[in-house]
Write a structure and sequence with these properties.
- It comes from Caballeronia calidae.
- This is Epoxide hydrolase.
- Residues 53-157 form the Epoxide hydrolase N-terminal domain.
- Keywords: Aromatic hydrocarbons catabolism, Hydrolase, Signal.
- The chain has a ten-stranded mixed sheet, sandwiched between helices.
- The protein contains 18 helices and ten strands.
- 42% of the residues lie in helices and 12% in strands.
- It has one domain (87-448): Rossmann fold, CATH 3.40.50.
- It is α/β, with parallel strands linked by helices and 450 residues long.
């Protein structure tokens, strides 16, 4: 007799129902976290005024952190790149090293606790909630300074410069160099609101920063920025509101119109350029040809980036694919992810956890796409000569996207009060070299203290 007994229809229904029940029960253990669940608590203001400053604290529900680790472990990986360098994009080995640490050893609660040590607030400006950290110095006559992060950064980028700038005497500097710091999240980034309408580009953001500083009681202040933060600071300088004392940028906009035209046409460097100018031209030319695909996509089709809202590894690789003046990903990012010096390039003070703190904030706030829209909202060349007349200080780090020559810088910033070329540091200068960066800000803005 055969042991193969035919299954009756009723038995098939029972087995199917039971299997479905087991599957549902198993699935419930791994159910996706409610990504709409708030990760912050905001103190209700004493008045109904839209101008109210509302204290904010961050606390991410544990279910969202469990879900993040589950998603990282469930990544479907592509095959390894067919080259031995990063010319095809972020290398597989780099992403898998990051994923290993992210899903096993990384602790978001450490970052969350540090974020909550700083006074953090939101206030509504022009219909949008703007998040900011506000740390006042204990020193008299401290200069109010608004510091803006870039992409793929966040306020986490600035953590290491807060104490050196607000408490300079603890870092070997003078009390007369102290700052009151305001560090906002750009619209659509981090803990700020996501614009529900068009128009939130650098110009509107620059005006919002003036409103924010005045709302905090600062009638006169300076602005600082790198990457997109440098773009906003440059726009503030060009708008030249009466309250603005001056600006400091480590992402200067100095490229003359004729040079920009030659670059756009893909022409070789003009023969009459000096050595510094030719070096900058070559860096800009290489970047335009090989390292700007992310900016083109975000500037034209940001809504298409659904994958970075759905996959943590997709988001991480997108954020990591940002170059410096020589390689992409930036040398400091690569060394930080691997936790060691790679190809002779140090990450400085930037650590793997610093990188993951930033990426995790993007993930938890689901701001991969909303942050990308800032590029779509920007309608000018970020590096074209700034044409700024307010006092301006420029620090040129050696591994920035390009090393702005003094000659171009003097033409772009008509009241240049500081220009300095550093011997270390790169695109993420405040992360990589926080003490050196802080000293540059102090020295660059010192002429404004009268």
């Amino acid at each position: 007799m055969s042991n193969d007994i035919p299954h009756s229809p009723s038995r098939r229904r029972f087995v199917g129902t039971a299997a479905a029940g087991v599957a549902a029960a198993s699935l419930s253990q791994f159910a996706l976290a409610d990504t709409n669940q708030s990760i912050v608590s905001i103190t209700k203001p004493s008045s109904a005024s839209k101008d109210a400053i509302r204290p904010l604290r961050v606390h991410v529900p544990e279910a969202q952190l469990v879900d993040l680790r589950r998603r990282v472990r469930a990544t479907r990986w592509p095959e390894r790149e067919t080259v031995t360098d990063d010319s095809q994009g972020v290398p597989l080995a780099m992403m898998q090293e990051l994923a290993r640490h992210w899903s096993t050893d990384y602790d978001w609660r450490r970052c969350e606790a540090r974020l909550n040590t700083y006074p953090s607030f939101v206030t509504e400006i022009d219909g949008l909630d703007i998040h900011f950290i506000h740390v006042r110095s204990k020193h008299e006559n401290a200069m109010p300074l608004i510091v803006t992060h870039g992409w793929p950064g966040s306020v986490i980028e600035q953590f290491k410069i807060i104490d050196p700038l607000t408490n300079p005497t603890a870092h070997g500097a003078s009390a007369s160099d102290a700052f009151h710091l305001v560090i906002p999240s750009l619209p659509g980034y981090g803990l700020s609101g996501k614009p529900g309408e068009t128009g939130w580009g650098p110009e509107r953001t620059a005006r919002a920063w003036v409103t924010l500083m005045k709302r905090l009681g600062y009638d006169r202040f300076a602005a600082q920025g790198g990457d997109l933060g440098g773009v906003v600071a440059n726009v503030m300088g060009k708008q030249a509101p009466p309250a603005l004392l001056g600006i400091h940028v480590n992402f200067p906009a100095t490229v003359p119109a004729d040079i920009a035209k030659a670059l756009q046409a893909g022409e070789p460097a003009p023969a009459e350029l000096s050595d510094d100018e030719k070096h900058a031209y070559d860096q800009l030319s290489s970047a335009a040809k090989k390292r700007r695909a992310y900016a083109l996509e975000m500037g034209t089709r940001p809504q298409t980036l659904y994958g970075i809202a759905d996959s943590p590894i997709g988001l991480a690789s997108w954020l990591l694919d940002h170059g410096d003046g020589y390689v992409q990903p930036a040398a400091a990012l690569t060394s930080a992810v691997f936790g060691r010096t790679v190809n002779g390039e140090s990450s400085g003070a930037m650590t793997r956890d610093d990188v993951l703190d930033d990426i995790t904030l993007y993930w938890l706030t689901n701001t991969g796409v909303s942050s990308a829209r800032f590029y779509w909202e920007s309608h000018f060349n970020f590096l074209a000569a700034a044409d700024v007349s307010v006092p301006a200080a420029v620090s040129v780090f050696p591994r920035e996207n390009y090393q702005a020559p003094r000659s171009w810088t003097e033409r772009a910033y008509h009241n240049l009060i500081w220009y300095n070329r550093l011997d270390k540091g790169g695109h993420f200068a405040s992360w990589e070299q926080p003490d050196l960066f802080a000293e540059e800000v102090r020295a660059g803005l010192r002429p404004l203290r009268k």
